[in-house]
Structures are given as C-alpha cells and as structure tokens.
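Hey, can you fold this?
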Amino acid sequence: MTELETPISKPRSDLGIRTLSGVIMMLVAASAIWIGGPIFAIFIALITVGLLYEWSKLALGLTPNPVARMLWILGGLAYVGFATAFIVFLREFAEIYILLGIIGLVISTDTGAYFAGRTFGGPKIAPAISPSKTWSGLLGGMTASALFISILGYCTEGFALWQPVTGAGLAIVAQAGDFFESWMKRRAGVKDSGNLIPGHGGLFDRADGLVAVLCVTALLVVTLQMTGQP
C-alpha cells in the first residue's frame, strides 16, 4: 500500500485522484460485503483473479529460472487464495463487523502511517526496499490501528486489553505485507503491480497489507481452535 509511504513531492492533483479512487474502492467493497450472496461471490472472484494475475506478472520478473517462477506462482496461489478464502469464511460464518473491522484496521494503519510519516519524518525503516517509509510512520499506523480496534471492541463486545495490543500487532503485519510487495516490485524492476486503479497502481498495490493481515489472522484463528481457546 503506497499510503504507508510519505509522498511529499506528489502533486495535489494526484492526491485528489488517489483519494477519490480510494473512496470508490471502499464503497464498492463494503457494499459487496454487506449485500452478500452472488454479488459478494462475484466480487471476491474478480479480486482473487486480479490479485493472482498481478502476482504472476511480478513472479515472472523476479527470476528467469522457470522452476523458481513456478514456485513463486504456486506460492501466490497459496498466499492470495488463503486470504480470500478467509474473507469468504468470515462473511458466511462470523459477525459481519469482524470482516469490516479487519478492513478498517488496515485502512487505519495506512492512514495513521501516512500522516505520522509526513508530520514527523525521521529515520527510514528499510530505505533499500522502500525509501519513503519511516519509523514514525510505523508508530503512527500502530497507534491508529490500536485505537480503531479498541473503539470497535468497545462498541460491539466491550473493551479488553487484548484489543489495542492486537491492533498494534496487526499494524506491523500490514506494514510487513507492504514491504514484501515493495521488495517484489523492486526485484522485478517495476514501480507498480498494475495500473488498474488511478493513483494507486494495481490491486496488489492496494491490498498487499490486507492480504498479509488476513493470512495471519486466519492462522491465529486456526491455532486458537486447535488449542481449544475460545
């Protein structure tokens, strides 16, 4: 997600396009999740195909070795497929606010990191991978995510200490997903994973952190179920 960077030099018109595109995407996604049924199924199918297509293009640019390329593509099938399957599971078998909450958490991380990075700047996290991301941006994202999950928890089930801790932890996961895609793009020699979304690049550029958070959350749920935790 490029919002976690600090694009100070971006022109105002580009920021407007990015904002409008982001609002439209969120409205479409929230509407599909809320409506459910065939609309939701079609939406998830399209997103999955789009993400796998962009992942495969990046994978082809990572290495000329055909065996390594195939392994990367298979890894993408597992990574993206696991995340989108978990979306379907949450929509069908959990309270809808949980799925919307995960999406909101990633948006909160993205927003908090963007504004904290622009406001405070400071040392870079990994300039060789993503030159604009700062430690202050990471802390801002963690804070925003912790606050969002705490407010959501208070409004739905009541506040508990694990909520801000989980929010901050998943913000780090979202940042890691962002860095992972940035590393893939840098190694493949491309700026964006695609050009589908004006001002944002491709679907994977927009959903890199969300995919990582969904996978980690799914693993946590499976682990808790296997250990008999509620």
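Oh, and this one too while you're at it.
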Amino acid sequence: MTAQDDLDLETLDFGSVEPHDFARIVKGLPTARIAELMAGTQRRRVLDEVFGRMNTRFRPDAAAGRDALIRWRITAADGGPDDVYETHIGGGTCTVVPERTDREPQLSLAMAAPEFLKLVSGNASGPTLFFTRKLKVKGDLRLAGSLTYFFDIPKP
C-alpha cells in the first residue's frame, strides 16, 4: 500500500497542496487513476487551481519581450465538453481566462487531462507528449518549445 492509496483524491482540497506535493501526487498515480479523478467532480476544481497558480509560477525574466496568447484545451474522455483556458503572457505578467475568447491565439495546445497534469507537474515532457501524439499543437512551435522555461515547474 502506498501513500497514494490512503489519499482521498475526491475530497482533497487541491488549493492547500503545495506544487512540489502536487507533483509527487501526480507521479505516484497511474494514468488510469488520474483519468478517473479528472472524469469526476474534482476536474474543474483541479484545473482551476492549476491555471490559477500559473501567474505565481510565472518567470517574467524568461518571457521578457514576449507577447503571446496560448489556448489550452483539456479534452474530456467521456465525450463531455472540453475545458478551455487561455493564458496571456506579456508585459512581464501571465494572466489566465477560464474560457475561450474571440482573440486569435499564437499557440493552441490540446491534450487529455492526465497528460496535462503530468506536463504541468513536471512528470512528462512536452516534446515526448507531442511525438507520442498525446499533445496536439497548432501555431507557433517555437513558443510551444519555450513554455516550460516561462514557468517554475515543480520537480517530483
């Protein structure tokens, strides 16, 4: 039995989980368990928490001179609606909107929830997800390759 077995993910307050602890939780869970969690009631709360923290994990020095809109589409495995967030990087800040806007993004990323959580927790690499077709990229590929440098991603 692991610590993950004792963790009640359905009632866990993800807002109280530090990024490095979140990375360890994600690392310790099988993909099927992450998919199960993200198909339930916690999905939107987890996504809102991850995207809500992006501005605190943002490294303005690494993104200096950038002005870009990134659209994230987290696909639903059960045929339900996808979740869409937009991240604007510019002027030394990172802002997030929890919906699709009419603005045209420089980069659009689409992936399933387990791959997204692995990516943002440092448990998967963007290039690997891309080359295994678990991450769909449309737009500025150089920007896509730079994203991991723009954020302080936890080490699991």
